[in-house]
Each structure stands twice: as structure tokens, then as C-alpha cells.
From TrEMBL:
Residues 279-398 form the RNase H type-1 domain. Transmembrane segments: none annotated. The lineage of its organism: Eukaryota, Viridiplantae, Streptophyta, Embryophyta, Tracheophyta. Residues 81-176 form the Reverse transcriptase zinc-binding domain. It comes from Rehmannia glutinosa. This is Uncharacterized protein. CDD domains: RNase_H_like.
Length: 498
């Protein structure tokens, strides 16, 4: 049921937030879907829902397989109810409602955990400043003796402290709630941001805390823009920015490097002769839209097919990577390609497709969709690659950044991308050229060195010749000619060096 059930959004679905009045009673979700095309009924949805809900609905992925609906328990990865997950969920709720009393050893662990977060140093530093109450909020500045109006500029209701700004202000609370964290802080009492963070560190996975840190940081930046430049405090923009940053972070995150062999830059490896390889990738842009890119290449690295598309979509990075893969396989099938290898830099998705990882309930549907398409295309070979070996697909995913496109290119990639020369194979050739150039430089240096050495010897000869000319003991009838000739030789050598 559209109005009653919690069915919008992923990974933690929620109900309708806006006005219900235009929604017909008894309306079901299937009434919002064009069953033939397997897409949302855009205009109908925009007609009966408020924008906030319409955007959330339209950004949800619909499986064209139309699998039967099922309930999932969102507090466990598998989507199945377990007593353990229920216990942790209840505990987390209780912890959110009561102030934790952290011992000093707990505090040390919490600080350690905070500094070990895999976010950019700026975010960690910001979290540290927030926890130690050293951010220049209004109350912070007042404490330092500045004569300012201490009222929160976002809500205009009370004094702006760190706690108010992040945990109580009615302007910032929707950011937490509408983000993928689904954090409802209304009526919660944490006392301070530090207590809040410590509580979350105890009951939430590390990825959750990283997202939390990034969101808090984006709230602070947006607050500064509003206070200093009067730039609108845009909740969805903050969420989109945080999501984009998280995705970028996840992309650049590398496993710790162990030895020189591993440190070698990974490169695109061509498929076996006579076969094709598909590389896919995804990008999230500033306005919250998502770009998908793919490229199909043969053994020689020549492009057979490439594509890029942009759309409004929300979901975890694994879901988005899955949609990029669906896009690629669908276009490859349309062009008549089958039996190709599929390569992506999403470890979760690839391991799920390889059967090495149990899919989480939130991305199981997309995994099944990809599997079905892959079966149709007779491809069973899924490979995980590092981002560096997936550069062309990465550039194609970023291609629709400024233009709303849904394009496919045959036997080429867009000229702007060709201009970047980031084809992984070209990169290899460039490396080879550099080695050749270095060799030539080596020979040139050796030649110059030899000539210089020769010139020094000629110098010695010159001195000897002078001595012969000046000293009768060395008596030589043609010493004068010797001198002249050696000088001529020296001049020749010098000019050749220059
Ligand atoms: Zn406020």
C-alpha cells in the first residue's frame, strides 16, 4: 500500500513524508509502475506526490524481472530476522535514548576509532574539533569574548552551540533523517556531540560512522556558506555531496600495500584472442544525479562499443555499480555481443556475482538482475579490477557530468575522452616510449662524457706540446705545427660539445 507501508528508499526504506491528500485510497505501488516498459509512471507520480516523495520514488531501481514482493528485516545484512540482530538493534535504540557513561579506557578506544576512520584528514580534524567543542560556533565565539548575536542563524530559535547545530536544530535534523543513515534525532538527548559520536561508535558499523562524519562536515560547510555568503542551506545538496564523497572515498580506498610486486601500477589486461571484455563504472555528480559508463574492447584494445548515461538515482554504491553493469550488458546484447568478460571495480558486486560473497538484502535484487542479463549474454566470467585498470569506463561514467545524455558509440569513444589518452593500453605504450627515450638519453650522456674526457686528454697533449716547443731538451723540428694542430683539435672538440 502506497500510503501506509514503508517502501521508499534504500537501504532503510521509509513511508511517505509529504502530503497524502492527492494519493487515492488503496493505491498500490504496482499502480505507479508502467508494467510493460518496466519503468515508473513519471507524470502520474509527480502529479499525486509532493516533490520530496516523487524524487525519492523515481530514484528507486525497478527490476524488470518483477520478482515477487517480500518483507526484509533491515537490521541484518541478509534481510532475515535473527535474535542477535534484534538484540543489537534494541540496544542501539536504548543507547540513543540514554546518555552513555564512558570510562577513560572507553574514551581512549573511541578517540582511537575516530582517528582510524577511513575519511579524508579534513573530516577527522573537523570531528576532533567538534568533539572538543572548539568549532567557532556562535556560543564558541561568545566564550572567547566576541560581542556577537549568539542566536542560530539557521532556525533563529536558540543559541547556536555545537550540540544545537548538529543534534537539535530543526534546519539540520532533516539532513540526518533523509540521508542513507535514516537517523531520527527528534527528542533525543545526547548532551554533546562527543557523546553522540561515542554512542554511534559503539553500536554502528564503521562505514556508518564514516558517512556520519562526512555529513556532519558538510552540514558545517553549508552552515558557514549560509552565515557568510547567504547561500541557501540545501538539505538534499548536503546529502548528495556526502554521498558523492563517500563513493569517491570508496573508489580511492586501496588495500594496504605489502611488497614491491603489489606496488606495480595495475593495468587493463586484454581478454583472450577472439573474445571481448566489458568494463563498467559509475559516478555521482554534485546535483545528486548519477553517471554510468561502459566500454567493450577486444584483445587488441580496440573499442567495439562504449556508452554513457545520466539519471536521477539513489542507492548504495553496490546498487549503482550494478545498474551500470546492467546498462552495459543490455547495450552489448542489443549490439549482438555475447560471451564477453565483465570487469568492474566494485568488489562487493563482483564477489557476489562470482558466488564468493553472500549478497546483502539491499542489493540482492540488482545482483539477480545482473545475473539474469549475464546468463542471456552467456557470460560467466566476472573480474574485479582496481580503479586504475578501469580508467576508460571511469572517464565514460564522468562524461555525462555536464550533459544529460544516454549515448552509445560504435568502434570509438568520445573525442574528449580520446583526448585524455587514458586508454589503459595507450598508457602502456606511453610507458614503453618513455623507457625508449630514457635509453636514448643514456647514450647521449655517455657520448658527451667520452668527448669531455677526450678534450681533457687533448689539454694534456697541448701542455706537453708547449713544453716541447719551449724547452730545447725536447728538441723537435716541427713543434710549432704540433701546437697549432692540437689547438685546432681542441677547438673542434669544444664546438662539437656545444
Ligand atoms: Zn538552529
Amino acid at each position: 500500500m502506497v500510503a501506509e507501508d514503508k517502501w521508499i528508499g534504500s537501504p532503510k526504506p521509509d513511508g511517505i513524508k509529504g502530503n497524502h491528500t492527492k494519493i487515492p485510497t488503496g493505491l498500490k505501488v504496482r499502480d505507479l509502475i508502467d508494467m510493460e516498459g518496466g519503468i515508473w509512471r513519471h507524470s502520474y507520480i509527480k502529479q499525486i506526490f509532493e516533490k520530496i516523495d516523487a524524487d525519492r520514488i523515481l530514484s528507486m531501481h525497478i527490476s524488470r524481472r518483477f520478482p515477487p514482493d517480500k518483507y526484509i528485516w533491515i537490521h541484518s545484512k541478509s534481510g532475515l530476522f535473527t535474535v542477535k540482530s534484534a538484540y543489537y538493534w534494541i540496544k542501539a535504540r536504548e543507547d540513543q535514548n540514554h546518555l552513555p557513561i564512558a570510562s577513560s579506557s572507553d574514551q581512549n578506544t573511541a578517540w582511537k576509532q575516530m582517528w582510524n576512520l577511513r575519511v579524508i584528514p579534513k573530516v577527522k580534524h573537523f570531528l576532533w574539533r567538534t568533539c572538543t567543542e572548539s568549532l567557532p560556533t556562535k556560543s564558541g565565539l561568545l566564550r572567547r569574548g566576541l560581542q556577537i548575536d549568539p542566536i542560530c542563524e539557521l532556525c533563529g530559535e536558540t543559541i547556536e552551540s555545537t550540540t544545537h547545530l548538529f543534534l537539535e536544530c530543526r534546519s539540520t535534523l532533516p539532513v540526518w533523517y533523509l540521508s542513507t543513515l535514516r537517523l531520527d534525532l527528534h527528542g533525543q538527548q545526547f548532551g554533546s556531540f562527543k557523546n553522540f559520536l561515542w554512542t554511534m561508535l559503539q553500536c554502528q558499523p564503521i562505514e556508518y560512522i564514516e558517512m556520519l562524519g562526512i555529513i556532519a562536515w558538510r552540514i558545517w560547510l553549508a552552515r558557514n556558506k549560509w552565515c557568510m555568503e547567504k547561500k541557501r542551506f540545501d538539505v538534499m545538496k548536503i546529502i548528495n555531496e556526502a554521498q558523492r564523497m563517500t563513493l569517491e572515498m570508496y573508489h580511492t580506498r586501496q588495500p594496504p600495500r605489502k611488497d614491491a610486486k603489489e606496488r606495480k601500477r595495475p593495468q587493463w589486461i586484454p581478454p583472450p584472442p577472439g573474445t571481448l571484455k566489458v568494463n563498467t563504472d559509475v559516478a555521482v555528480f554534485h546535483d545528486g544525479t548519477v553517471g554510468y559508463g561502459f566500454v567493450i574492447r577486444d584483445n587488441a584494445g580496440a573499442v567495439s562499443l562504449a556508452g554513457a548515461r545520466r539519471e536521477q538515482k539513489q542507492g548504495s554504491s553496490t546498487i549503482l555499480e550494478g545498474i551500470a553493469m546492467l546498462f552495459a550488458i543490455e547495450k552489448a546484447l542489443e549490439a549482438g555481443f555475447t560471451g564477453f568478460q565483465v570487469e568492474s571495480d566494485s568488489k562487493c558486486l563482483i564477489e557476489g556475482l562470482q558466488g564468493k560473497r553472500k549478497p546483502e538484502a539491499t542489493w540482492n535484487v540488482i545482483l539477480e538482475d545482473v545475473t539474469q542479463y549475464a546468463n542471456m549474454a552467456q557470460c560467466t566470467n566476472f573480474i574485479y579490477v582496481n580503479r586504475e585498470a578501469n580508467q576508460l569506463a571511469h572517464a565514460l561514467a564522468h562524461f555525462p557530468k555536464d550533459v544529460d545524455v544516454n549515448l552509445v558509440w560504435c568502434n570509438e569513444v568520445p573525442s574528449s575522452i580520446e583526448g585524455l589518452r587514458i586508454d589503459d593500453r595507450t598508457q602502456r605504450e606511453r610507458n614503453r616510449e618513455t623507457v625508449e627515450k630514457m635509453k636514448l638519453l643514456g647514450w647521449w650522456l655517455m657520448l658527451v662524457g667520452t668527448l669531455r674526457l677526450a678534450s681533457v686528454w687533448f689539454g694534456f697533449f697541448d701542455i706537453w706540446a708547449l713544453r716541447v716547443a719551449a724547452h730545447p731538451l725536447y728538441g723537435c723540428c716541427c713543434s710549432g705545427i704540433h701546437i697549432n694542430r692540437s689547438k685546432v683539435n681542441m677547438c673542434r672538440v669544444i664546438s662539437s660539445i656545444e
